[in-house]
Amino acid sequence: MSQVAVLDPLVAQQVVAGEVVDRPASVVKELSENALDAGATRVEVEIADGGRERMLVRDDGSGMSEGDTKLSVLRHATSKIRTASDIESVMTMGFRGEALPSIASVSAFSLTTSTGEGGGTNVVTDGGGKVSVSPASHPKGTTVLIDRLFYNAPARRAFLKSARAERAAIVEVLTNLAITHPQVMFRLVEQGRQVFYLAAAKDLLERLAQLYGVGKARVM
Ligand SMILES: Nc1ncnc2c1ncn2[C@@H]1O[C@H](COP(=O)(O)OP(=O)(O)OP(=O)(O)O)[C@@H](O)[C@H]1O
Ligand SMILES: [Mg+2]
Fold this sequence. Notes:
By secondary structure, the chain is an alpha+beta fold. The protein is about 35% helix and about 25% strand. It has an 8-stranded mixed sheet. Helix 2 runs parallel beside helix 6 (about 165-180). The longest helix has 18 residues, at about 165-180. The termini are far apart. It binds adenosine-5'-triphosphate and magnesium ion (MG).
């Protein structure tokens, strides 16, 4: 341990990914936060094997232009701040520009998006840092597909819990986001079966009633 070396950028990205992404639920959290930051009224999540095999997060938010889509998977690429002082007034859930590149570095990643004007864009990365961008059709909004989380980090993949435990963590993430965003519809589907569904509510009281029943919501 006597030689100091600067890490290869991909290795450095995977190290950072360790802080952002530790299990399927953290991927769902980051992607759903992006959807909410983009003004989505619907956040739909599909998973296979508790998210360990596949996760898809679809939103009806602003979508991205082709140029923004290409940038979004690069480190420190964000639309949410421009200067250090913006950090003090940031209103969005994310602002570091770390989530998408981190997730992409430890999975097979595909993002398809459209602003609803002109055609849409698909960007695919393979965890190895290779990025390919092509035109794709998509309604206004964004869909991100994550296959085989940690396929290139076997030690971390081995650390994943059972499908049941990972699914429960995803439900918890969605529940927390649903409480802070009552007007948004949330749905979680696992292999065609709806696991969690909350229609858009008019306010926090209605959202709490959806989650915990009317009686309990009133005293919360
Ligand atoms: N679902 C989405 N809809 C529209 N734009 C998106 C979506 N997801 C990501 N983006 C754009 O891509 C950028 C990068 O996303 P990413 O999550 O990596 O960083 P961030 O949200 O800015 O910060 P953080 O790393 O703290 O989450 C965002 O700033 C946003 O402009
Ligand atoms: Mg983000």
